Amino acid sequence: MYVGMKGDFGSLSFGRQNTAGVQISDMSDIGTFTGDQKAFVSAGNEQINNTIAYGYDFESFKLKASYIADDQKNADGYGLSGIYSAPFGLDIGLGYAANDLGTDKGSADQIIAGLGYTMGDLYFGATYTTGDKDDKADTEFTGIEVSAQYKITKEFRLIAAYQNQEEETKNVTKDKADFFELTGRYDFTKNFRSYLAYKANGLDDKDAGYKVEDTIRLGLRYDF
């Protein structure tokens, strides 16, 4: 929950809400299992407590900035992002986020870039992120996500996506995510939808630390 105001100056809000970088991750986060690339760094994640967010929409450019006043000492964070929309359906986005991890616990930062292209009922999106998950522990990360969506009818669409994430700690690299997704989605109304999603997991059991299995998910979703 958050409160805010909106006017010619843009929008300003405070509370539990998305940080600035989420508008970039949303460019490829259109599936059921997608979007985890924003979770590497708290300052770039969604639905974060004590977040101050500012947004301003120019004619073809969307600017967002955020600041996290964390309850924990020395754990504040900030983010800045922008998306330029060309007149022929191409969107280009770039964002940066950083936050401390607590007293004497180091810090984390992230650069995230995104592309989106809309052509009628077809949409393509891609994001790439890289940064330090914990500079004190020397843990770095990279992530890529590509997705496509085709609206067959007004109510029904097909979504396909691929995601890969890696973390490197002291020159040892492990996959954190590696999967393909195929989803069918049916919208009953603007707020109510159903979906059937299949996730083909390509992670190695050793990297995951558990027995990796594919996933099928059937669900209903209502947005208030």
From TrEMBL:
<dbReference type="InterPro" id="IPR050298">
    <property type="entry name" value="Gram-neg_bact_OMP"/>
</dbReference>
<dbReference type="InterPro" id="IPR023614">
    <property type="entry name" value="Porin_dom_sf"/>
</dbReference>
<dbReference type="GO" id="GO:0009279">
    <property type="term" value="C:cell outer membrane"/>
</dbReference>
<feature type="domain" description="Porin">
    <location>
        <begin position="2"/>
        <end position="201"/>
    </location>
</feature>
<keyword id="KW-0732">Signal</keyword>
<dbReference type="InterPro" id="IPR033900">
    <property type="entry name" value="Gram_neg_porin_domain"/>
</dbReference>
<keyword id="KW-0472">Membrane</keyword>
<dbReference type="GO" id="GO:0015288">
    <property type="term" value="F:porin activity"/>
</dbReference>
<protein>
    <submittedName>
        <fullName>Outer membrane protein</fullName>
    </submittedName>
</protein>
<dbReference type="Pfam" id="PF13609">
    <property type="entry name" value="Porin_4"/>
</dbReference>
